[in-house]
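FW: tagging you since you asked about this chain on Friday. Here's the raw sequence from the shared folder, copied in full. Didn't touch anything.
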Amino acid sequence: MKLQFLHYTFKTQTKNYKYLLIVLLGIFFLTPQILHAKGDKKNKNHLSKISTVNSKTYLDINNIVTFFYNDGTSDITPNRNSGFVYPKGTVKTAVFTSGLLWGAKIAGDTVARVGGSTYATGLAPGNINVDGTAADSTLDKFRIYRVRTDIFPGGPTVDLFAESILEGITEFALRTNYIVDWTQWPAELGAPYDDKNNNGIYELLIDVPGVPGADQTIWFVANDLDTNKTKNLYGSNPMGIELQETIWAYNR
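HL: got it, structure written out here
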């Protein structure tokens, strides 16, 4: 079994936490789930027709197929069914949904606060600005990003037919989305990259986006400053947390 790996980076607005409890929550079921995807073999001729505003993406480089969203939700399909499929190509699912939870007691507040994502989410896409406000979650740069080391501008043609059928888009659209994410990789927001010349600066034509050595990397940033979302999740006020999540996998 080839596994996925996750890395979480947290930023907080204050240092007033007495303690912080972080829980990675996985809800496991064995109920089969079919991922509905229809292949479209029609050719597309214009990059402008390919939408890059992605709220979700697939991890599917090896024998696992699952979903990740830029609001912290994972392992669930868009129609709210079991999303973590293993082995790829079957209807067997191992996880219904998952997410990261945290809780803390904050100085001056008698009520403990809880946030993160479970069946609902207390997060919105985007980082926290230097003035402490939430970035505009509707901006395209706060979509979820995905790259593969074998798909890059000017690179060789890679057979994506199976993945295009699985994801329900054309090979051309799929390849275009990979290349767009490569060229727009948000290293300035904290997305990891392989610094080829070790100068500490992300350079598009030199460095490689994604986790060094990984075959597929997914990245997004989110925050918990939307009071409506945190109240809807567990009735808590925001904690001022920015979450940067990296997911990577290997095909070997």
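FW: Residues 73 and 99 are 6 Å apart (CA to CA).
HL: agreed, and The two ends are 11 Å apart (CA to CA).
FW: great, closing this out.
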